[in-house]
Structure formats: C-alpha cells, structure tokens
Amino acid sequence: MSGGRPWFRMLSLVLGFAFLYVPIISLVVFSFNESRLVTVWGGFSTKWYGALLRNQQIIDAALLSLKIAAIAATVAVALGTLTGMALARFGPFRGRTLLSGMATAPLVMPEVITGLSLLLLFVTLEQLIGWPSGRGMTTIIIAHITFAMAFVTVIVQSRLAQFDESLEEAAQDLGARPAKVFFLVTLPIIFPALLSGWLLAFTLSLDDLVIASFVSGPGSSTLPMVVFSKVRLGVSPDINALATILITVVAIGVAVAGIVMARQQKLRDRDAQMALAANQQMIESLKKG
Amino acid sequence: MKLPGLKRLGLSGRALVAAVPQFWLALFFLIPFVIVLKIAFSDAQIAMPPYQPLIEWVGEKALHIKLNFANFAFLVEDNLYWKAYLNSIFVAAVATLICLLIGYPMAYAIARTSPSTRNILLLLVILPFWTSFLLRVYAWIGLLKNNGLINNALIALGVIDQPIQMLQTDFAVYVGIVYSYLPFMILPLYANLEKLDLTLLEAAADLGSRPWEAFLKVTLPLSLPGIVAGCLLVFIPAVGEFVIPALLGDPGMLMIGKVLWTEFFNNRDWPVASAVAIALLLFLVIPIMFFQRAQDAESSAGGRR
What 3-state DSSP class applies to B24? Predict the structure, then answer.
C-alpha cells in the first residue's frame, strides 16, 4: 500500500514534466530553423549561431555578465558561509534574529524593491562620501552578492544542520583551535554544499535582469538587459541560439556534477563499510581475548 | 593564530565571524530600506537625484524634518495604484493555487518512486531553474503567439480555424508565473512528503479508511508545512513580478511591479516609486514573516534529526 493510484501518479508526472520541458525543447529546436519566423519550420540551419557570435553587443554583454557572476558568486559564498556558520553553530547570540531575518528576506523579496532600494543607497552614498562614483560593474556586483548570499546561507545552514556536530567537538577535544577545526573538519565536509552554492549564486547573477537594470549605469549593460531589450520587440532566432548554448552548458555541468557526486557517495559508502568492518573485527577480537 | 589585541577589545573569533555578514547586510540590505522610506516622504524635483533632501539644517541649530505625505496620498487617491495592488495580489494568489494543484501531485508522485528514480526526477525539476528565467519566459512568446506553435498545432488539427489570442492576455501571465515558479512549489512539498511515514497510511487503511479519506485526513494535514512554504515561495515574488507581465501580458495590465518600474524608468518619479515600494512591502511584510518563521522552524528541525 503506497497510497494513491499508480496511473494518476504516472499521469501527473508525465503532464507535469511535459509542461516544464516543452517550452525549453521548442527553444532549442527553433534555434536551428532556417526561417526568421521562429515558429514556422523552414529547414535546418545553424546560421543564427553565426549571427549571434558576430553580434558584438551580445558578446560584450555576455563577457561582462560572466565577470560579474564569477566575482559575485565567490564573495557570496564567503559571506554566506560565515552567515551559515553563525546561524547553525553559534547558538543564541546578540543580533541572531536580525541576522537570520536579513539573511533570508532576500530569498522572497520582490526584485523591484531590492533593486530600487540598492540604487537609492548608492546614490546617497555617492552624495555623502563620493563612493561609488557612478554606477556600473561594481554596483551590480555588490547588489548580486547581497541577494545571492541569502541562497548560499540557506544551503550552508541546512548542510551544517545535517551533519554531526560531534565531529567538530572531537577535533576540538583533541586540541584543535576553532579556525583549525573549521578548515580541517568543517570545510571539507560542507565543500559540496559550497560548490552548489557557488554555482547557484553564479546562475542567479548571470540571470538577473531587474536588479541589474536598477543599479547599472551607462555602458554597463549585462546580458539579460540586452536580451530583454531585444525580446521586447518580439522573437528573434539568435536569442534561441543563445538559449540553446546556455541550456547545453547547464546540462553538461549538471551531468558532470551528478557523476562526481555519485562517485563521492560511493567512496563514502565504501569508507563507512570499511569502518564498520573494522569495528566488527575489533569487537570479535575483544570477545576472543 | 592568536589575536590578543582583538580579545582585549571583546571581539572573539566568533563575534568577528558573525560581524562581517551583519555589517554587509546592514549596509546593503537594511539601510537601503531606510533610504527608500526617507525618499518616499520627499518631494520630487527636476535634478539628479530627482528628489529634495528630507533633512535640512535650517538656521543655526534647528533640525528641520519635512515629512511629505503627498506621495502616499497620491497612491490612495489615484485608482490606478489600488487597482494595480489588488490585481497583483489576485493574480499571484490564483497562480499560487494553480501551482499547488499541479505541484502537489507531482511532488507526491516523485516521493513515491524508488530512490534512484527519485533523484533523477528531482534533478529534472531543478534543471529548468538553472537555465535562464528570462529565456524560459521568452520561450512562451513563441508558443503563445497568434502564429505560434500552439495556435498552429490547433489549426492543423482542425480544432480552430482562427488563431486564439493568447499572448498579451492575463492567461499568458498565469501560464508564465505558474511555469516559472512551479519548481519552487514542488521542492518544499517533496521535502515534506518524502518524510511522510507510510505506516500511518497503512494504519488508516487497517482502520477502514478509503485511500482518499486517508489522504485527506493523514497526508494532507501532515504536509501542511510544505504547502505553506511552497505557497509563500511562489506568492511573495509573484506579487512583485515584472518580467512576466512585461513580456507576456497585455500592455495595459496593471501589476504593481510594472507600475513601480514605469514610475522609476519612464516617469523618473523616484519619490512615487519609493512610496509604491514601501506600500508593496507593507502588503508583503506578514507573508514574509510567516515565511521566515517556517524557514527557521525547518532549519532547527533539521538540527534535531
């Protein structure tokens, strides 16, 4: 008895996944369309990929977005790890409620509000202390760090909540200082969480249109901003080509990450089994002796 | 590593670890809201930045604080804003409900498959989330257009002779929101349903419950935390959504995120845009606090496991 009717569960999965994937598949298929009319098939062609790669505006915007995403994701992981550690390990401390509130609110905060408020902060700061002078890459990076670190915090915090604190306590009992415990015990264990946090922060930054539109200045248009101004005027096949490249990169990345994680899981399982076997042997020998 | 100087200042390593993100978030998350609040009470002027300072030193020592409620009065008097707020909340609520109706059976079905299938299916739920949000919304333009894929298919099948207008309607906005936010509904529901103790359902069956009775009386109430978390994750951002109504909706459709964007970028009225943001935040403060409660309960429950 597993609850529910099998055919109904099957049906909901098939329809649900069709809903999620048909639009993505249609994007990919029509990127290879000869015709400019995105929805009428005019034969196979890769010319839109060529058109995309010759579009200097899109290339520049893509490079800027990649740079911003790499820096923002790295800083967001550092800050998010600190926040996650403080929230999961430090028990009650002064300002904990405020920190946890500030750390999770950006998860659901409408982007228009985050964008507007950060822009007003930057304008005010510039008036008061002359920094940041003008808006552009720096202000976009700061904005992206601030909302991406919330996601990293949640990932790190839940990973820390899952694993046994006694490992850290053991290291501490053996004389390791807190910093050493963190780098030798905690960090290796939560490393996969940091990696997925970094990837998530990178994707979020690469994908953000609304916040970047508020805090960017002249001459610093990110990829989503260029794409948005293009698709507002209607469909264009080179955007389909861009989407296909992105989807391919993500699919490869996810497949590689999946394989690596499965292999690590196998290694961990084997280690655990060996430890169990060793334990068993020790008990046996103790019984005999 | 010893830091005696810092110790004397009362700053332990722990306090430093917490202080760095506290400082960052205070500067780049908390203070900005104070500034938005400030500018919402300020007058517009044609300058850069386009608002008058709120706090001025008048004469020798008198601190002069001008609070201008005109921007809020403007929001209350002008029907447009009320309609936009109510319409946003309505659209977000309906989209959340549709997400729940699609997401719940999917999450339930995934939680009941074998562990290896489960991981693949979960990956398939998350995968669209990793590809660009903007491009996924764009995909729907190609599907919903008058000469788009769906209309062409329906005409080819002989179901209709004339294309149905789907793009630039409320329908398209619902489709866009449900499509974009569905993973946010499925994941918390799955995390909850996966933990469901199946022996409870067996017990219900042994005591004579029909499957749907067991579902209504056991599964549904137990999955309530997952439902709440999923609904809030969809509802709150959907209220302020800008991209989906801008790309798929009718140009005249009133959504508050779009109104804020227009006030800011097209009308360059920063004080009114700030007042819109503050009012939107007031609408969302209760659901956001609910969400944080649930989030906190969830992470401390994880600690106990």
Answer: helix
Q: Which of A5, A8, A20, A114 has the most B C-beta neighbours within 10 Å, making it the best mutation to test the interface with B?
A: A20
Distance from CA of B304 to the nearest CA of A (A): 8
With beta carbons under 8 A apart, name residues in chain A contacting B130.
199, 203, 250, 253-254
**Which residue segments constitute the domains of chain A, with CATH numbers given?**
57-261 (1.10.3720.10)
Question: Of B152, B63, B269, B225, which is closest to residue A35 (Cα–Cα)?
Answer: B152
8 Å CB contact of A4 and B108: yes
pLDDT value at position B46?
Answer: 52
CATH of domain B78-304: 1.10.3720.10
User: For B126-175, what is each residue's pLDDT tens digit?
Assistant: 888 888 889 999 999 989 988 888 888 888 888 888 888 888 899 999 99
Rg (CA), chain B: 25
Residues 6+ apart with CB under 8 A from A44: A32, A33, A34
Indicate the residue type of A282. Answer: M
Q: Yes or no: say if A72 and A145 are a contact pair by the CB < 8 Å rule.
A: yes
In order, the DSSP letters of A4-73 are S-HHHHHHHHHHHHHHHHHHHHHHHHHHTBSSSSTTS---B--HHHHHHHH-HHHHHHHHHHHHHHHHHH
pLDDT 10s digits, B139-148: 999 899 888 8
**Using CA atoms, how far apart are residues A97 and A101, in angstroms rounded to an integer?**
6
Residue A85 CA: distances (Å) to CA of A105, A157, A180, B6, B17: 18, 7, 14, 20, 8
What's the CA gap between A209 and A228, in Å, rounded? Answer: 8
- Per domain, the residue ranges of chain B are 78-304
Half-sphere exposure of A282 (CA within 13 A, CB side): 6
CB atoms closer than 10 angstroms to residue A28: 16
Tokens of A37: 């009319």
pTM > 0.80: yes or no: yes
